[in-house]
Amino acid sequence: MSEMMELRRTRAKAIRTHGVLQKAVEAGTLEQFQDISLSEAVVLGLVNQGVKTFIGIFGHGMTDVGEVLRVYEEEQAVRVINVRSEVEASHAAAMLRWKYGEVSAVFTSIGPGAMHALAGSLVPLSNGLGVYYLMGDETSHSEGPNMQQIPKREQELFLRILSTMGHAYSLHTPEAVFTALKRGDAAVNGGVKQSPFYLLLPMNIQPKIMDGCNLLEFPTRSAASKIVSDSEELFDAAAEVIRSASRITVKTGGGAAGLTSAVLEEFLELSDAVYVHGPQVPGLYPASKSRNMTVGGSKGSISGNYALNECDLLIAIGARGVCQWDCSGTAFRKAKKIININCDYEDLGQYSNSVRIQGDAEAVLLRLIERLKKAPGESDPAWRKECEAKRAEWETFKQLRYDHPVLVDEKWGRPLLTEPAAIKKAVDFADAKNCVKIFDAGDVQANGFQIVADEKPGQTITDSGSSYMGFAVSATLAFVLAGNRDYPMAFTGDGSFMMNPQVLIDAVQYGLKGMIVLFDNRRMGAITSLQYSQYNTEFKTDDAVEVDYVRLADAVKGVKGFYGGETAEELEEALNAAYAYDGLSLVHVPVYYGTDDMAGLGSFGDWNVGNWCEQVQKLKHAIGF
Questions:
Q1: N or C terminus: which one in the chain shows less Cβ crowding within 10 Å?
Q2: Smallest Cα–Cα separation from 566: which of 497, 515, 520?
């Protein structure tokens, strides 16, 4: 056993020194053929692809992999981050990829832990982020029910569930690890849209030894695919559609995140279009630009939705066509044509009567720019004026609510800040300090992406892909794992925070410096609002429990709680004190909830939900996209 351990340490040192196994073998540091357990092969194979961070929770279904990780961390080949929730682990891994491009691996035990991680993987799955998941599984001998397996006497039930969700592989045989790692690399790194990859490791297979394992068989990391259509006729057709239109709107989704502002601006100028963004990409094109009509969709803006509703040509870039992104397919009600630009061919098929160009957003726009330079588009002069007037109307609409920041709340029995006013104050503070804003799901998220006015990309991150409650607070952990290069501010509601409060402990464990701003209306405010809009009454979205979140934060030694106050001035004072704290801080901001018009920013789009469905579906089919 001691000899095997020393050989394991030698391999860990070699991969740390050389980066990839191929170089270690070429240098003579490692023999090409060695006896290696499946557990080590998985760890070694992931490190060979550049995965150095493993986040999760150990359990009886992952003990052998844990022993390998212990040795590899001691030799500084990896770092292992043990947290208190598999969902939190998944969110941190998703943020590492989202903000910093780092691929990490989430590890879990068998059963409930794996199911928690699977639920959390909705975030990277919905937002196109590559993350590895290592999950324990029942033994392959089927000697009897394994504790925590799905209690049904059928084979590979976890594999069936995971394969329904995304790309999955069960390591039923140790030598299958090479194929598994190749498929994992294709999903996590190489595809036009990255995604999670789920690796199931049966408990009895993990320690199995592969005799004479070929170290050169382990795949390295692939470069991300960047494709662009080679059809000159297709680009010519798109350019001609642009020239023939008179009211053009360009709308970007999360798939356009890599697009540079200069290229986007040149395209907007040459096509003479106005611009609308989805909630994932504020700052892609500066908010201060006159062509920017801000966010559009079912929770969009007055100006953003006007630009969508009234255009005769929509150019969609990098979008899945999610229901709230395009008002369940009704946003473009006067459009005669759509140009759809996307790497993913399935997403290209979202709209009929469209010119579909498959390819990387920037590569496609550059080729369209070449054509438009020769003969640019020219919109109706009234189009820009109408849109700019709507943008001014939207700014006035918001400012009126900021100018009336306090209302008397019936539940709290005292004047409180409205959510828009409180979020606006926190957003302005974050921008002044160059903090990264992360928004949780619910009304905080919806009001947030209506308020945010970024001048550069990457300053706001919101999971509008799966709208996962608790994502923002858990995702702050990624910032300390990335070396505290940026200061995160998580914007969360009381409901979202209580879904995943474990970060209070893990932030201290790992030395996170950041802030949680908790907007507390003691209800699921987004759903209460929807209930009132649809049925004129609330049902089971309210609560009567008052929580002292400052004391809750202070109960964790190393976290500091601050009361956000009841005026804008008090909130700013609390934000400054929280920012000065050397660790994780939490600012508790009670906010008004009620029917006063000044309490929210409203909705300006359609949505196929509840008793709106029949009307929205009828409109969608009448439009015909």
A1: N
A2: 520
Residue 148 in contact with residue 112, Cβ under 8 Å?
A: yes
Is the Cα dihedral 16, 17, 22, 25 positive or negative? negative
Query: Stretch 565-574: mean pLDDT, rounded?
Result: 97
Q: What is the mean pLDDT of the chain?
A: 94
Q: Which amino acid is at 346?
A: E
Beta bridge partners of 37: 209
Nearest 5°: CA angle at 254, between 507 and 164? 80
CB atoms within 10 A of CB 391: 22
CATH 1.10.10.60 is right for the domain spanning 232-388: no
* CA 521, chain centre distance (Å): 25
Distance separating alpha carbons of residues 405 and 421, to the nearest angstrom: 5
* Token pair recorded at residue 517: 């701003």
Cα end-to-end span (Å), the chain: 65
Q: How confident is the model at residue 470 (pLDDT cuts 50, 70, 90)?
A: very high
CB 507 within 8 A of CB 584: yes
Averaged pLDDT for residues 20-47: 97
The domain 2-217: what is its CATH number? 3.40.50.970
Which neighbouring-strand residues pair with 210? 36
Counting residues of the chain whose pLDDT is more than 90, the rounded percentage is: 83
From CA 587, how far away is CA 577, in angstroms rounded?
Answer: 9
CB 329 within 8 A of CB 340: no
User: Exposed e or buried b for every residue in 423-460, given b needs 16+ CB within 10 A?
Assistant: bbbbbbbbbeeebbbbbbbbbbbbbbbbbbbbeebebb
Query: Which three-class secondary structure state does DSSP give residue 274?
Result: strand
Q: What are the phi and psi torsion angles at 230 (to 5°)?
A: -105, 15
- The structure tokens listed for 300 are 């969009």
DSSP string covering 434-451, please? TPEEEE-SSHHHHHHHHH
Asked if domains 2-217 and 411-593 share a fold, the reply is: yes
pLDDT per position as a tens digit, 49-80: 999 999 999 999 999 999 999 999 999 999 99
| Cα gap 433→517, rounded to integer Å | 15
In the chain, % helix, strand, coil (3-state, to 5) comes to 45, 20, 35
- 440 and 490 in contact (C-beta within 8 Å)? yes
d(CA 80, CA 75): 12
Rg of the chain in Å (alpha carbons): 26
Residue with tokens 């976290």: 559
Residue 163 main-chain phi, psi, to 5 deg: -70, -25
Contact between 93 and 56 under an 8 Å Cβ cutoff? The reply is no
The pair of structure tokens assigned to 421 is 């006013």
Q: Which two tokens stand for residue 189?
A: 């790194």
- Exposure pattern of 315-343 as b/e (b: 16+ CB <10 Å)? bbbbbbbbbbbbbbbbbbbebebbbbbbb
- CB neighbours of residue 73 within 10 Å: 14
Secondary structure tally for the chain: helices H, strands E: 25, 22
Domain extent listing, the chain: 2-217, 232-388, 411-593
- Provide CATH code, domain 411-593: 3.40.50.970
Q: What is the DSSP letter of 189?
A: I
Distance between CA 194 and CA 180 in Å, rounded? Answer: 16
